Write the structure tokens for this entry.
Amino acid sequence: MKLWNGTAFVDVSALKVWNGSAFVDPEAYIWDGSQFVKVWPTFTPFNEENINRTDQPVPVGASGCWVTVGGAGGGGGGSQAAGSQNRRGGAGGGSGAFIARVWIPIAALGTTYTVAVGAKGTGGAGGTTAGGAASAGTNGGASQFISGSITLTAGGGLKGGGGSSSGVGVGGAGGTATATGFTATLVNGNAGENGNQTTNGSTPLPALGGARPTGHPAGRGGAGGSNLIAGVAGEDGYTLIEWV
């Protein structure tokens, strides 16, 4: 759209209008009989799934975005090496937290946005010497959406502990979801199971990683190791930004 400035038609992309409290980008709507439909500026909706962004400009012409954010799962701990009748398995990692799909209007966003997709936690190594201790997994990474004063964070699940002569691995806690500057539905992750132990020299059962929170398409915690076996990695986090 262009406006006549007295000598030529000029682009109005930099034009602002006063809405009663602030200068904002102009938009034109028409009433279709049941709702107002934006007719200018035209905008083609698009999605960004599991894409990291840093200070990306908010798309011109967008009405806002739907945001879904899930943290990554923590890695499971490894299992103690064989060497005695007492065999202690690794623990499961916690699952990532989840922030359910939430609408953020353009007026609430800043001029740029940042998206981080949490990386999965790795599984801990199993013990390598008779009766030797195993390694813990690593924590899952947080997933985030940030724009202006809004920060939505779905924390990653914590690592599962490794089995050792002093006891089984302790399950990792689930991630924590937080929201600042905006209201959203927050769901914390689930803890992984503690490691299992046998006293007759048999193989302990693997401990389960934390289950995905309801609605989270990823972010499960990794299972704990069993009988010299390394723990299992968690699942990567998840982000979906739907611009409309």
Q: What stands out?
A: The chain has two domains: 1-42, 43-244. Residues 45 and 244 are 5 Å apart (CA to CA). The chain is about 0% helix and 30% strand.
